Amino acid sequence: MLGFATDYAGESTSVAEMRNMLLDIADAGFSHIHWTHEWSGDYIYSVFEMIQIRAWMDEFGLKSKGLHATEGSSRKNVPGKFTHRWTKQDRRDYTSENELNRLAGVELIKNRIDLAEYLGSSEIVLHMQLPYLQFIESEEFKRRYYSQVFKSFDEINYYCRAKRVRVCIENLLGTPNEFQIEQFDKLFERYDSEFLGFCFDTGHANITGDDPFEFLKRYSNRLFSLHLSDNHGIRSENCWKDSAEMSNSDEHLIPYDGLFDWDRFSELVAESPYELPIVLEVANRDRENRQYLADCLAAGNKITDLILSYRQNLK
Fold it and tell me: Which residues constitute the domain of residue 230?
């Protein structure tokens, strides 16, 4: 069993190209998909689109291992900079101080929960951006921010339980680990694991912080989703100031094509409650598609075998 993110070659909006993309993934030997189309922005899926995607999956014998939800409308910060200061109220944003915009953001997440239910997914992955510079300047701002987040998650909680879908919050780029740890600690103290889990992104972890496994070790009991890719780590300290350079450091390479320690990763996952399959979230920018998918499959199977081997040794 092995999962694969659907946007590995971009996010075509062509119905024919989306169908062919799923066919290619199935023909390559993957058993599961992680639906990542429209992972950002405020696109709303029609129920008929949900039915169509599920029909393609059934046609090609594919199952679902989660999907990537969207946090809402794109934020407008200073171009090219990780300022982490909100400069506008977004139309759909579950963290917004504007109550109607917040509710619109909740509606958007519920749309992805509906999509997960149609595709047979038990979790969605969600980003939660942290305006940490404003947290530093104002405890009152931080209090208001988390108050809105808690309102949104309180409402989503009941919806998720009815649909049997869990929300997994992902570790992100551009925010120092201390603020992300505060975030995860607050959320996991307030919400149980039936509703809220953790998505570990290896590419992000290899760039932020001194220990790439800090989050994985700290929140292993909440590990229900994985985004696996490789890179060569942070390229320069300037990455923290320039969003383009930070994004370029997150290369989304096939595992073993970068510097990430996959052996240590597999050992830690083996000790967690994570249920296979793993999910590769990689990007094919210029390689022949069939060979690229074959190389991804080989790397993913190698990691899966490592995890199973470590689990066997734990018995």
Answer: 3-314
